Amino acid sequence: MRIAVIANTSWYLYNFRLTLITALIGAGHDVIAVGPSDSYVDKLTTAGIQHRPIPLVGGSINPFRELRIVWALHRIFRDEAIELVLSYTPKGNIYGAMAAAMHGLPTVPNVSGLGRVFIHQTLLTSLVKRLYRFSFGQASRVFFQNSEDLELFVRLGLVDSGKAVRIPGSGVNLARFCPTVESDGSLPTKIRRKVEENNGGWKQFVFLLVARLLWDKGVGEYV
């Protein structure tokens, strides 16, 4: 099967979807990574992944520029004989489904968060809701990474409850993100000393927030 995987940056595709893409290729599928040209395109191609660029700008609301994205996706789907579309990020989900509808292709959007349009209600929010309602009406399934978003989209009529599926997040590649250990498999010296000082356990947990310092990113909840 020929599969297109779409996101709003190629950085996102490389850092968050590389494992999925390589797994799909390993299963015998042809996968085309679709995203704007940035410094991570070379990393994708070096990993043996075909890339097709689209003129997507995250913060743009220019209607003519946005229509160019849909048209670019339409051409990619046609030229690459795409059979299935997997999409991520709001614009990737909406525009990917719109272009797929031109070809009658099955799409599976993934909603990992609502974004600022839903957090800060404006006139744009109403338009985006209409676009979601149309786009997700074309989708075969819609994955949500938290229950609140799923319930909101169903309640607003943006997606049919029979298509909405809750998944437990994006997942973490534990072969890449794992605790640091010494060559003999033991804990690093600093951590081992800390454990020994506390008689083999921790007296308290120490939390670290790794995020941009924006209220929308959960700083308030963290505090």
Which descriptors apply to this entry?
single chain; 223 residues; alpha/beta; Rossmann fold; 7-stranded parallel beta sheet; 9 helices
Explain how this protein is built.
The protein has 223 residues and is an alpha/beta fold. The chain contains nine helices and seven strands. It folds into two domains: 2-166, Glycogen Phosphorylase B (Rossmann fold), CATH 3.40.50; 189-222, no CATH class. It is 42% helix and 13% strand. A seven-stranded parallel sheet has the order 3-2-1-4-5-6-7. Strand 2, helix 2 (41-46) and strand 3 form a beta-alpha-beta unit. Helix 3 packs across helix 4 (90-101) and helix 4 packs across helix 6 (123-138). The longest helix has 17 residues, at 10-26. 26% of the residues are buried.
